[in-house]
C-alpha cells in the first residue's frame, strides 16, 4: 500500500504548472497525480478530478511524483466551493489509517460521507411581502397576503407559502410577477442558531460545581488532555459536562458530544436546548441528506458550534474543535464492527490530541481500558459519588433461582412477581430486563430435535412473534414462521425454547393482567421518533410494567421506576469471552441505575443460579473498585488489553478450504511477528463462522505493550496476494478475545 505523503516542508500552495497528488475515496492504493487546476490551489483543497470517464471528488494531498509521462497527466477539473481540509484533519486520517490498518481511501470516504459535496453553492428561492399592488383581488390572492401579513417580515419557501395559504404555486408566482410578493435567492445551507452559554445554567451541587470548575479550566487551557468523568447514574454527569461545553462556547471553539445510541439523542437535544436556548446540530444515520450536507458545511465554516452525534461525527471537518465528550464511554456500540473497524472512544482521543481539544469520557461504569489509563495517570479523573437530590442508589439483591418454584416456560420467579405486584399497588413502575430480542432464542422441532438455523450464517433463527417471522440476528435475513419442521416435515411440532423479550411480555401480561405493559426492544420501533414517543410516555407514567432489552439500560430517566428485575443475570457470564465479566458488570449496574432516580428508593433484583459468582457478588456489594482490581489482575496476568496488545485477523471467502489454507500459510510465515516477540494463535473458525454465505476464519495476534505491532502486521499480511473472493480484515483491539 503506497503511503500518502505528509511532508511538512511541502508547499501550501501549488501554482498552475505544478503537479499535485490527490487522494480520492476510490479503492486505489495510491495517490493520483494531476496538474494543479487553473489558477493553482492550496494543499487540502477539495477538488473534482477526471478518473477514466468519470469525475470524482478528492483532496489535494501534496506534491505529485511526476514519475511517468507528464503529457498524459490530466488537470484537476476544479476546486470545490467548500473549506479545504485542514492540516490537523489530514494528520488525523493518516494516523487513524496507520492505527487501524485501514487504507486511506476508506478513511477519506468516512470524512466525506455527505451528498452533493461537488454541487455548486446551492441557492433556493424564498418569498416575502413586496411593495406592489395586485391588479385584481381574488379569494386565493387575499389568503396569500394574509399569511404574509400575519407573519410579519418572515420569508417562506414556495411550498410553505402555498400550503399555508391553501393555494396553488401559480397563484404565488402570479403575485411575484406583479411585485406584490418578492422572490429572493438565499443560500440553502444556513448556519445554526447561536447557542448561549449563559442561557439556562442550573444551580449545581458542590460536588458538581467542583467538577464543572475542573473541566472548565481544562477546556480553557486549550490543549489536549483526557478526563475520565465517573459518576453513579443520576449524579449529574451530563449537567457537569454541559458546563464544559459552555466554557468551550465562551472560548469560541466547537464541541462534539458523542452518544452511543440514536434513541438517546432526542431526549438529549431537549436538555441541550434547555441549557443553551436552542438546538445544536444532530448527526447520525437518521438525519436527512440535505441536513447532513448543511451540517458538514457549517461545521467546516464555524456555522455549527455544537454537534450531538453518533461515532461518525468524529470525521466531520471541524474548524476549531475544543471539546469531545464521549458519553457512556464503556458502551460496546462505539466499536464499529463493519467496514472500517475503529473504536470511537480511541479515535476521539486521537482527534483531540491533534487539534488541542479536551476529551471527557463519561460513564458510571468505565471500560477497563479507561480505568487503567486513569490509574496510570494518563487521564485525569473526576468522580461524582452521590446521586442528585433525594435520589439514592437502589438496593441490590439476588434471587437464588435454585430455590424458586418455577414451572418450565416461566421466567419471572414468585419472589420477583410479588415485588412487581407491590409496585402496582403503589402506582410505581417496574422494569423487567432481559437482554434478548425476539420471542425465543431457539425454535426446536419436538419430533426430530432440529433447531432452525439461518441458511447463510452459523446462527440460529430467532422467532419474532409480533412480526410472525424468524429473523437472523447476524445478517438480518427473515422468513415466515413455517408450520412444518424444515428437516423432518412433521407439522405442528415446532416449539420455542428459552425466553426473549416478547415472550417475557406475554408472561408479564398473564401474571399482571390489569397492568399496562410497555415493551422496549429495538425491533419493535420503526423509527427513532416512535421510540422517543414511547420513552416519553413511559417517563410520564404511561406504563406500569416495562419489559426491555439493553435499549433501556442507556441513560433514560424514568422517575416513577422503583423496581428493576433482571431476568437472567447469568446470561453474560457464560461463554469464553474474556470481556464477559466486564460487560455483565456494566450492564447490571446500568440497568439497576434506572430505578429510584427521584425521591423514591429503588430496588434491583437479580435472578441468578450462581449467586456466589465473583461478578454477581461484586455487583451486589456495589464494590466497583474491588471488581476493577480483580479484573485488572486477571488481564494483566493473561497479558491481554489493556495490559498487552491484540489484533484479530478475519479471513473470509466462499470456499472454506481456501480460507483455511490462507490462514495456515499466514500462521506459518510469521517471521515479521516473531521479530517483535508477538505470537499468532489460530487459524480457527471466527466467533461467527459463517456470515452471509461467507466462511470466516480468525487468527489472533498477541503482543506486548509498546511494540510496533501495526508495522509488523502490515509486513506480515502484505506477503500474500488475495485471490478470488478471499478477503482479509484487521481488527485492532478486538472486542472478543477468544
Ligand atoms: P447522569 O448523567 O450522571 O446519569 P444526569 O445529568 O442525567 O445524571 O442527572 C440526573 C437527573 O438529575 C437529571 O434529570 C438532571 O436534570 C437532574 N439534575 C442533576 N443535577 C442537577 C442540578 N444541579 N440541578 C437540577 N437538576 C439536576
Ligand atoms: Zn443469517
From TrEMBL:
The keyword Ubl conjugation does not apply. GO terms for cellular component: primosome complex. It is an enzyme of class 5 (isomerase). Zn(2+) 1 binds at residues 445, 448, 485, 488. Residues 183-203 are annotated as: Disordered. CDD domains: DEXHc_priA. Zn(2+) 2 binds at residues 454, 457, 472, 475. Residues 218-384 form the Helicase ATP-binding domain. Its EC number is 5.6.2.4. Binds 2 zinc ions per subunit. It catalyses: Couples ATP hydrolysis with the unwinding of duplex DNA by translocating in the 3'-5' direction; ATP + H2O = ADP + phosphate + H(+). Pfam families: DEAD, PriA_3primeBD, PriA_C, Zn_ribbon_PriA. Keywords: ATP-binding, DNA replication, DNA-binding, Helicase, Hydrolase, Isomerase, Metal-binding, Nucleotide-binding, Primosome, Zinc. Gene3D superfamilies: P-loop containing nucleotide triphosphate hydrolases (3.40.50.300), PriA, 3(prime) DNA-binding domain (3.40.1440.60). GO terms for molecular function: 3'-5' DNA helicase activity; ATP binding; ATP hydrolysis activity; DNA binding; zinc ion binding. InterPro entries: DEAD/DEAH_box_helicase_dom, Helicase_ATP-bd, P-loop_NTPase, PriA, PriA_3primeBD, PriA_3primeBD_sf, PriA_C, PriA_CRR. GO terms for biological process: DNA recombination; DNA replication initiation; DNA replication, synthesis of primer; double-strand break repair. Its cofactor is Zn(2+). Belongs to the helicase family. PriA subfamily. Component of the replication restart primosome. Initiates the restart of stalled replication forks, which reloads the replicative helicase on sites other than the origin of replication. Recognizes and binds to abandoned replication forks and remodels them to uncover a helicase loading site. Promotes assembly of the primosome at these replication forks. This is Replication restart protein PriA.
Amino acid at each position: 500500500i503506497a503511503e500518502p505523503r505528509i511532508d511538512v516542508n511541502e508547499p501550501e500552495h501549488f501554482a498552475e504548472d505544478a503537479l499535485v497528488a490527490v487522494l480520492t475515496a476510490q479503492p486505489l492504493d495510491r495517490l493520483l497525480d494531476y496538474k494543479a487546476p487553473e489558477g493553482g490551489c492550496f494543499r487540502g483543497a477539495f477538488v473534482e478530478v477526471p478518473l477514466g470517464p468519470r469525475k470524482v471528488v478528492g483532496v489535494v494531498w501534496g506534491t505529485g511524483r511526476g514519475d511517468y509521462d507528464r503529457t498524459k497527466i490530466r488537470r484537476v477539473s476544479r476546486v470545490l466551493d467548500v473549506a479545504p481540509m485542514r492540516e490537523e484533519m489530514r494528520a488525523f486520517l493518516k494516523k487513524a489509517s496507520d492505527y487501524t490498518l485501514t487504507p486511506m481511501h476508506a478513511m477519506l470516504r468516512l470524512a466525506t460521507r455527505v451528498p452533493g459535496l461537488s454541487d455548486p453553492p446551492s441557492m433556493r428561492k424564498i418569498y416575502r411581502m413586496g411593495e406592489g399592488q395586485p391588479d385584481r383581488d381574488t379569494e386565493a390572492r387575499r389568503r396569500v397576503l394574509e399569511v404574509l401579513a400575519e407573519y410579519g417580515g418572515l420569508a417562506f419557501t414556495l411550498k410553505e407559502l402555498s400550503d399555508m395559504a391553501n393555494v396553488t404555486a401559480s397563484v404565488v408566482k402570479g403575485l411575484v410577477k406583479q411585485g406584490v410578493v418578492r422572490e429572493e435567492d438565499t443560500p440553502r445551507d444556513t448556519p445554526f442558531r447561536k447557542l448561549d452559554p449563559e442561557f439556562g445554567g442550573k444551580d449545581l451541587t458542590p460536588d458538581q460545581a467542583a467538577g464543572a470548575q475542573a473541566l472548565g479550566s481544562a477546556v480553557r487551557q486549550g490543549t489536549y488532555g483526557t478526563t475520565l468523568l465517573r459518576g453513579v447514574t443520576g449524579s449529574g454527569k451530563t449537567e457537569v459536562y454541559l458546563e464544559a461545553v459552555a466554557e468551550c462556547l465562551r472560548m469560541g471553539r466547537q464541541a462534539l458530544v458523542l452518544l452511543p445510541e440514536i434513541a438517546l439523542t432526542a431526549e438529549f437535544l431537549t436538555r441541550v436546548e434547555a441549557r443553551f436556548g436552542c438546538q445544536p446540530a444532530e448527526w447520525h444515520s437518521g438525519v436527512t441528506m440535505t441536513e447532513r450536507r448543511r451540517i458538514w458545511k457549517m461545521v467546516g465554516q464555524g456555522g455549527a458550534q455544537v454537534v450531538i452525534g453518533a461515532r461518525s461525527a468524529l470525521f466531520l471537518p471541524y474548524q476549531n474543535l475544543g471539546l469531545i465528550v464521549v458519553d457512556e464511554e464503556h458502551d460496546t456500540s462505539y466499536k464499529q464492527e463493519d467496514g472500517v473497524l475503529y473504536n470511537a472512544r480511541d479515535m476521539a482521543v486521537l482527534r483531540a490530541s491533534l487539534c488541542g481539544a479536551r476529551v471527557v469520557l463519561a460513564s458510571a461504569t468505565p471500560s477497563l481500558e479507561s480505568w487503567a489509563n486513569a490509574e496510570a495517570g494518563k487521564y485525569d479523573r473526576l468522580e461524582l459519588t452521590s446521586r442528585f437530590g433525594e435520589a439514592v442508589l437502589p438496593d441490590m439483591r439476588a434471587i437464588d433461582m435454585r430455590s424458586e418454584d418455577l414451572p418450565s416456560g416461566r421466567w419471572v420467579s414468585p419472589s420477583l412477581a410479588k415485588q412487581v405486584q407491590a409496585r402496582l399497588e403503589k402506582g410505581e413502575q417496574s422494569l423487567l430486563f432481559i437482554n434478548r430480542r425476539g420471542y425465543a432464542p431457539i425454535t426446536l422441532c419436538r419430533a426430530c430435535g432440529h433447531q432452525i438455523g439461518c441458511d447463510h450464517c452459523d446462527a440460529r433463527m430467532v422467532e419474532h412473534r409480533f412480526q410472525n417471522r424468524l429473523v437472523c440476528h447476524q445478517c438480518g435475513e427473515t422468513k415466515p414462521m413455517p408450520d412444518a419442521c424444515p428437516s423432518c416435515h412433521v407439522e405442528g411440532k415446532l416449539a420455542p425454547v428459552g425466553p426473549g423479550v416478547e415472550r417475557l411480555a406475554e408472561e408479564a401480561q398473564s401474571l399482571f393482567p390489569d397492568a399496562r405493559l410497555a415493551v422496549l426492544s429495538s425491533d419493535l420501533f420503526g423509527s427513532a421518533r416512535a421510540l422517543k414517543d414511547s420513552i416519553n410516555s413511559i417517563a410520564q407514567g404511561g406504563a406500569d410494567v416495562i419489559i426491555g432489552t439493553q435499549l433501556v439500560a442507556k441513560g433514560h430517566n424514568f422517575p416513577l421506576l422503583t423496581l428493576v428485575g433482571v431476568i437472567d443475570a447469568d446470561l453474560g457470564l457464560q461463554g469464553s469471552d474474556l470481556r464477559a465479566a466486564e460487560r455483565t458488570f456494566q450492564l447490571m449496574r446500568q440497568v439497576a441505575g434506572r430505578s429510584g432516580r427521584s425521591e423514591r428508593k429503588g430496588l434491583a433484583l437479580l435472578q441468578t443460579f450462581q449467586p456466589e459468582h465473583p461478578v454477581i457478588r461484586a455487583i451486589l456489594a456495589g464494590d466497583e473498585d474491588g471488581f476493577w482490581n480483580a479484573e485488572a489482575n486477571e488481564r494483566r496476568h493473561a497479558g491481554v488489553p489493556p495490559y498487552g496488545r491484540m489484533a484479530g485477523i478475519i479471513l473470509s471467502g466462499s470456499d472454506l478450504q481456501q480460507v483455511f489454507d490462507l490462514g495456515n500459510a499466514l500462521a506459518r510465515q510469521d517471521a515479521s511477528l516473531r521479530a517483535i516477540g508477538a505470537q499468532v494463535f489460530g487459524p480457527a473458525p471466527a466467533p461467527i463462522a459463517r456470515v452471509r454465505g461467507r466462511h470466516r476464519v480468525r487468527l489472533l495476534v498477541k503482543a506486548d505493550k509498546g511494540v510496533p505491532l501495526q508495522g509488523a502486521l502490515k509486513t506480515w499480511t502484505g506477503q500474500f496476494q488475495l485471490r478470488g473472493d478471499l478477503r482479509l480484515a484487521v481488527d485492532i483491539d478486538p472486542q472478543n478475545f477468544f
